[in-house]
């Protein structure tokens, strides 16, 4: 079953990669069929198998030998492993479907935000709608109500940070996409875990920002790191919640 989760992840990844790249280029999602960007050779079914095709073709187009970007291979491996991890932790449950959704969202956001510094609205709308359907299936109407309140909390918090940040730095501090992403983060996680997700995302973003500052890059994407924090905290939410409770108990004993 873990292998099945891995395969599902690789298939999702190749669709997400194709979809985001075409969307960024302003092309249609369905037509034309997948083709080589250099010589327009339409890809056969055996050139479309995730990972396998890339390795078999040694990363080159069959016709013109043009190099195929390695992004797709990395994306497929990443989502394959992410889906496997989710399945190993949550097994046969709604939580697994939410985990698959969050991993896919993380991938879609990473591709568009690292490439073009934007988070596509279509990514956020799709993810948020699907997550609310899953929340409804797991927790019913009450769950939706709670998630929505927490979502608004996240959105307002980020909106205020952006408002203040824009004034202080006199340029865009947080992107509009990050603020909308905060709504999804709040909807999935209760506020204490939501804050931990932001901290984890920032901790991972910090070394990246330091390295990029060496290259004098000023504008950095934050969305992928937020989405990563969300995914990690969602995966280990039970452990993290226990950890936080333990600390609170220790605090009560000593203070
Ligand atoms: Zn070609």
What does this structure look like?
It is a single chain. This protein has 255 residues and is mainly alpha-helical. It folds into two domains: 1-92, no CATH class; 94-255, no CATH class. Helix content is 74%, strand content 0%. It has nine helices and no strands. α3 runs antiparallel to α4 (94-116) and α5 packs across α6 (176-188). The longest helix has 49 residues, at 121-169. The radius of gyration is 20 Å and the shape is globular. It starts with a helix and ends with a helix. The model has no long low-confidence stretch (mean pLDDT 91). The structure holds zinc ion.
- Structural class by SSE content: mainly alpha
- How many H/I helices? 9
Count the domains: 2
Order of helices and strands: HHHHHHHHH
Radius of gyration, Cα only, in angstroms? 20 Å
The tally of beta strands, per DSSP, is: 0
Detail the poorly predicted runs. Answer: none
Summarize the structure.
With 255 residues, the protein is mainly α. The protein is built from nine helices and no strands.
């Amino acid at each position: 079953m873990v292998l099945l989760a891995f395969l599902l992840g690789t298939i999702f990844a190749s669709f997400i990669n194709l979809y985001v790249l075409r969307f960024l280029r302003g092309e249609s999602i369905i037509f034309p069929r997948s083709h080589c960007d250099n010589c327009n050779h339409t890809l056969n079914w055996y050139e479309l198998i995730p990972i396998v095709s890339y390795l078999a073709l040694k990363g080159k187009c069959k016709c013109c030998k043009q190099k195929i970007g390695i992004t797709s291979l990395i994306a497929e491996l990443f989502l394959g492993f992410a889906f496997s991890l989710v399945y190993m932790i949550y097994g046969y449950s709604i939580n697994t479907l939410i985990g698959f959704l969050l991993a896919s969202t993380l991938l879609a956001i990473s591709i568009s935000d690292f490439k073009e510094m934007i988070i596509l609205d279509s990514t956020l709308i799709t993810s948020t709608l699907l997550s609310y359907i899953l929340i409804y299936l797991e927790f019913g109407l009450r769950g939706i109500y709670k998630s929505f309140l927490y979502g608004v909390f996240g959105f307002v918090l980020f909106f205020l940070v952006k408002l203040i940040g824009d004034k202080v730095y006199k340029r865009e501090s947080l992107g509009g996409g990050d603020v909308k992403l905060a709504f999804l983060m709040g909807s999935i996680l209760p506020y204490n875990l939501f804050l931990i997700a932001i901290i984890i995302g920032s901790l991972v973003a910090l070394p990246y920002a330091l390295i990029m500052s060496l290259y004098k890059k000023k504008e950095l994407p934050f969305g992928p790191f937020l989405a990563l924090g969300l995914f990690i905290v969602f995966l280990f939410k039970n452990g993290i919640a226990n950890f936080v409770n333990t600390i609170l108990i220790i605090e009560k004993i000593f203070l």
